[in-house]
Amino acid sequence: MNGAVVITPPSENAAKVAAPPSGRLIEFDLLRGLAIVVILLGHSVVNSNHGFPVWLENLVRGGTGVFVFISGFFFHRIFYKRFEYKDFMVKKAQNVFLPFLCVSLVGLLVGLAGSMLIDGSTWQVAVGRGWEQVKNGYVLFPHWYIPFIMLTFLCSPLHMHYIRLQTSAQVATLLVFSLVAIFMHRPLGNVDPLQSLVYFTPFYLLGMLYSQYLPWFRQYYRYLFALSLLALVATVWLQSEVWVHLGNYHKAPFKYGGVDLQFIQKMGLCIVLIGLCERLTWQKISDHLCMLANLSFAIFFLHPLLALAWGNGHYYLVKHGYLGEHQTVLASLGLSLLLFLFLLYGTVLLINVLKPLLGDKSRMIIGC
What we know:
This protein is mainly α. The protein contains 16 helices and no strands. The protein has one domain. The protein starts with 25 loop residues before the first helix and ends with a helix. Belongs to the acyltransferase 3 family.
């Protein structure tokens, strides 16, 4: 047994960080920037299932879990020590829910205009389509995240209780929620925030634990990284080559649909990306990711507007014969890269234009 590696669980007293330090961790600032990049990559896939590589799509889809992991980390690190429920919820309503409403209104108006100008729909038909979107709880597709994350914030007293549990109870709770999520999957059309709450709660809990037991995670990180990377590669291969499934897993909550390999993959990705961020030595890339991190919420809120403009423009060009469909692998990758750059840096440009115009109301309207 000499030379064997034994990973001991964090002790109840020595490893638990009840009052986290307030200093920032640069790797998590970088991770915030990298997370929004992953999310936009997942929203930039062109020719899904018709030219775009399946394994690559399965890798870039579903980046929301990383976002939720980061939220859980910062809940413990920043808010736990000075948590006051009312103030916490008021700030989340101002800085998360209000921008969601403002940008959704703009998206609804753009959608109505596109329906009438491009499709030639009557205003009654256009309004009917808009109402169908509103009934789902969101207008712009990526914004399904906001009703769910607001429910997560509403559950903050439960998260406070979770932090105070014994380590064994914390791990058991994480495992139970993970097992449920693996078989429950994400909701159909992402329209059920309660199902999303249950599905993504393990990411939030893992983020809190990573902050709470930071010294332990750092001590054993090399082994956790290896296991996480193995899980990531294995699940991408299984999902793409063995039990072939494209992208995220969606179904009704109580209908059996097999194992959600995306869940396992993205839990592993959270750990892998931390290591990449900790070891990032290229200062220009670090500075760039920090810039994206500072704008990440605004990028998340606003990039669907540019995606809507891209989609309407592409639809118009194809409909009138100005553009053909190109479904080769090279064309799919090239168009996806072009769309990603348009969404990311077009949104950054839009933010830089809007922020000075909106002044001190910018955070409540666009999220930064």
